[in-house]
C-alpha cells in the first residue's frame, strides 16, 4: 500500500543468529514476483541476512497453497531439511503439511488455545526468543557446507538478484549478485552501509 512495514525488534538478529551457525536462510512470501525489487530493497534497507527468496508466480488466489508447494518442492526435490520455520498463525497450516514438529515452528503473537499444541508462540518477542536460542539445543552449528553458495552478509541494492525457475512454477531468487549492465545514463545509487567484508569483495 506504499508504506514501509516496520521490523519487529530483534527479528534481524534472530535471522543473523541462524546464518552465523551456518544455516541456509529462506524467505518465502505470498506476494507476487512483480514486487520482487521492492521486497529485496526492504530486506536490504533493514540489514536482513542474505538468503533465497521465493515469490508467488503472479497474483496468487491461494498464497498459502503456493507456499506449501514451494516448500514441499524444496524438501522433496532439493532434499532441504527445514530446521526452524517462522511466521504468523496463518502459516501454521503450511508447516503442519510439511510434517514439522511443534518445536520447529515459531509464531509471532499471543498464544491461543487452538494452536498452542502446534507451535511455539513468541509472545515475548524476538529479542527474548534470541536469548533462549543461544542456550537451546535446537540452534546448533550446521555441520555441512550448504551455505557456501551464498555470500555471508546482507542484501545489496547495487545489483539485481538472479531469477531461477523450477518445475511447478517454482520461482526462486538467489542472492548471488550479478553486475549491472552498462548504461549511458547511470542512475545514482542509494547510500547503503555495507560490512567491510562485502566492500573488500566488491573491490576485487
Automatic annotation (TrEMBL):
List where in the cell it is found: Endomembrane system
Main location as per UniProt: membrane
List the residue ranges of the region (Disordered): 161-204
Source species? Ciccaba nigrolineata
Q: Which Pfam families did the record assign?
A: LNS2_PITM1-3
For the keyword Membrane, the answer is yes
* InterPro entries for the chain: HAD-like_sf, HAD_sf, LNS2/PITP, PI_transfer
Report the SMART domains cross-referenced here.
LNS2
Any coiled-coil regions, as ranges: none
Q: Which UniProt keywords apply?
A: Lipid-binding, Membrane
> Where in this chain does the record put each LNS2/PITP domain?
1-117
Protein name per UniProt: PITM3 protein
A GO MF annotation of the entry reads: phosphatidylcholine transporter activity
Cellular component GO terms, alphabetical: cytoplasm; endomembrane system
The superkingdom listed in its UniProt entry is Eukaryota
Amino acid at each position: 500500500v506504499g508504506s514501509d512495514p516496520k521490523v519487529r525488534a530483534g527479528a534481524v538478529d534472530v535471522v543473523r543468529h541462524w546464518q552465523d551457525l551456518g544455516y541456509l536462510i529462506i524467505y518465502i512470501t505470498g506476494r507476487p514476483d512483480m514486487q520482487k525489487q521492492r521486497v529485496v530493497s526492504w530486506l536490504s534497507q533493514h540489514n536482513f541476512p542474505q538468503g533465497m527468496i521465493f515469490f508467488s508466480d503472479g497474483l496468487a488466489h491461494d498464497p498459502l497453497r503456493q507456499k506449501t508447494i514451494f516448500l514441499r518442492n524444496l524438501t522433496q526435490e532439493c532434499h532441504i531439511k527445514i530446521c526452524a520455520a517462522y511466521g504468523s498463525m496463518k502459516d501454521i497450516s503450511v508447516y503442519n503439511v510439511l510434517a514439522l514438529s511443534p518445536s520447529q515452528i515459531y509464531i509471532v503473537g499471543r498464544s491461543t488455545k487452538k494452536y498452542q499444541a502446534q507451535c511455539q508462540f513468541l509472545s515475548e518477542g524476538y529479542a527474548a526468543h534470541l536469548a533462549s536460542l543461544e542456550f537451546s539445543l535446537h540452534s546448533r552449528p550446521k555441520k555441512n557446507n550448504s551455505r557456501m553458495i551464498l555470500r555471508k552478509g546482507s542484501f545489496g541494492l547495487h545489483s539485481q538478484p538472479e531469477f531461477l525457475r523450477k518445475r511447478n512454477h517454482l520461482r526462486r531468487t538467489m542472492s548471488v549478485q550479478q553486475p549491472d549492465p552498462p548504461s549511458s545514463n547511470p542512475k545514482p545509487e542509494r547510500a547503503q552501509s555495507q560490512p567491510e567484508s562485502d566492500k573488500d569483495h566488491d573491490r576485487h
